[in-house]
Amino acid sequence: MIQIITPDQVNFVADQFIQYYHQFETITDYQRFVRLQRTNKTEPVSSLFPPEDDFFSDWDMSPMDMEFEIHEVKESRYDPKDFNKYLDLIYSHANEKGIPGKRIQMVVTEKKTGSIVGLIHLASPIICIKPRNDNFGGIPDAHSVNRHMIMGNIIVPAQPFGFNYNGGKLIAALCCSHEIRQRVMEKYPNTEIVAFETTSLYGSTKGMSMYDGMKPVLRHFGDTVSSFPPNINDTTFTDLDHYFADLNGGDPLIPNITPRPNNPKSPTTSRKMKSQNAMKAIVKRSCKKHGMADKLAEFEAALVHGTNLTERKRYYVCNYGYSNISDVILKGADPVVNPQNWDKFYQENLINWWKGKAQRRWESLNQDGRLRTELEVWTRNPNIDIIR
Predict the structure, then answer these.
(1) pTM of the predicted model, to two decimals?
(2) How does pLDDT run across 40-57, given as a tens digit for each residue?
């Protein structure tokens, strides 16, 4: 791999990073920028047109009258392309479609209206994360984490269903159901799932998330720690990726494919992050080689600015009613059921738990005249409140 580039090349690459990060003052500026870039590329969903008509919009409906269905993508009328199109309309973050590892995508609908109230993407768990290690009292090995945990990578309610009915709590609660846990183990037979984890989209900005107030379903285990700037995305990254490939004899700094025993064409994990780390290292090394102290200082200041955009996210865990998940994951113990909590995690009971919260929320908003009735999708409004 190329190690040193020329001063002109250093200036060009460093300026791409500097200009990119300095255009943002907050993480919401960054997320809105990335979302709008991708929204402009969104095509219509293949089912109904316009696609936003498929989202829930019956704001006179009481939560007590609602019934829900969960449709697994590819096992129902929804296919992956449709899932991604719906997600691009309502998700606050950029939708990263090429995440390797486990993948179960689900569309949640209200049965009587046939409309979408939320989307779920379950994925492989985070291999190592500080708040989990602190709460478990040790660092579990990667195999045990992957065997016993599943992560809610995307848990997103349609808006304003989320605002009017505490919809985020509903979608998160469904992720914690025995029914979905069982589905994960059916699709991935080598797993024995005893815990579900997720993180809030934002933490330090708001100090709370839609997952707060969900005990005993989900419990806050602490906040994550991050010392990296967010990724450069889309056009800027693609241009730099190609630029370095040209300098590197036609090969990208990080290969697109990393063969694995069970998949010789496996996409490289976190390729975008690894590529940018390689680019940064080359710029820093080249600045030192050529005596470009001022450019190095400017470049590092931009990276610090980018890092300061990053949020500490709130980390949450569900134990499905097991009483010893840390021993299972750390020590290989057999799972022990807590009989007082086990039945609470069946889907019907979780929905009934949510209905009490949702009914109080809906009645309060109605009484105060604060019920929202306008669908919040990126194609209609680029100024969506992305931290709710």
Answers:
(1) 0.82
(2) 655 544 444 688 899 999
